[in-house]
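ok posting inputs for the iron/sulfur cluster job
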Amino acid sequence: MAKVSVDVSSCVGCGLCEQFCPEIFEVGGDGIAHVKAQVCALHNIEEAAQQCPVNAIKAA
Ligand code: SF4
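and the output
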C-alpha cells in the first residue's frame, strides 16, 4: 500500500487536500498539511496528490 507523506518545505497550506480528504489530511495551526491517517476508504490518495498545486503530496 502507498505510504502518504507531505513535503513540509513545499506545502503552502492551501487546504485543498484537507477539503478533498479530511480523513487523511489536516492543515495544522502551523499552516502546513499533516497526514493523520494512511488509509481512507472513500478517497484516492493519488487523486489528492494530483490536486496539490505545489506537488507536495507523495504517495509512494
Ligand atoms: S494541497 Fe498541497 S499545498 Fe495545499 S495544503 Fe495540501 S499538501 Fe499543502
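notes: The mean pLDDT is 94. The longest strand covers residues 4-6.
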